[in-house]
Amino acid sequence: MSLLQRLKERKLVQWGLAYLAGAFFVYTGLDPARETWGIPETVIRGVHILLIAGFLVTLVLAWYHGERGRQRVSGPVEPGTAVAQRGDRPGVAVLPLDNFSPDPNDAYFADGVHEEIISKLSRVSGLRVISRNSVMRYREERKLTREVAGELGVRFIVEGSARIGG
User: Fold this and answer.
1) What is the pLDDT of residues 95-139, one digit of tens each?
2) How far apart are CA 45 and CA 52, in angstroms?
3) How far apart are CA 111 and CA 75, in angstroms?
4) How far apart are CA 118 and CA 134, in angstroms?
5) Residues 40-73 pLDDT 10s
6) How far apart are the first and last CA of the chain?
7) Could you tell me the pTM of the whole model?
8) Cα separation of 97 and 163, whole Å?
């Protein structure tokens, strides 16, 4: 893919032009504001520096987030795994956490951490998170990660353990 195509795809030119238009209005409004309110020359220079820095920040943000409005998530379950996606959002499943606490009665802690992880991930607008009820069957039913991902229709799996004390 050529550089020009990538710039178009990531909407870098549109973001840059929009920023320059806004910066132009700020820049042209500085001179009358300086005279009216007696703004010192050092403040005007600082605003100019901020406008230039803001332009660079805008270009960086456009490069990373301008790709057709999609956010990217990295780290596929296994290389080469092709899993169907629903919509544009990548799917993630948080498997039940193994209880590594010395006392088996402390499983409630692992369950609580599991629910909290699902809750936090559900707040990420770019992700489709599988419900806790749908993943609970994998607590006892051990399968390969690739199989679980295929059955749940997700690209990402979170596995882990929890322990209280000892």
Assistant:
1) 998 888 888 888 888 888 899 899 889 888 888 999 999 999 988
2) 11
3) 25
4) 12
5) 889 989 999 999 999 988 888 877 776 544 444 4
6) 55
7) 0.47
8) 10
Per-residue pLDDT, 1:
60
Residue with tokens 């790709």: 67
- What b/e string do you get for 46-71 counting C-beta neighbours within 10 Å, with b at 16 or more? ebeeebeeeeeebbeebeeebeeeee
Both tokens assigned to 99 = 């209880």
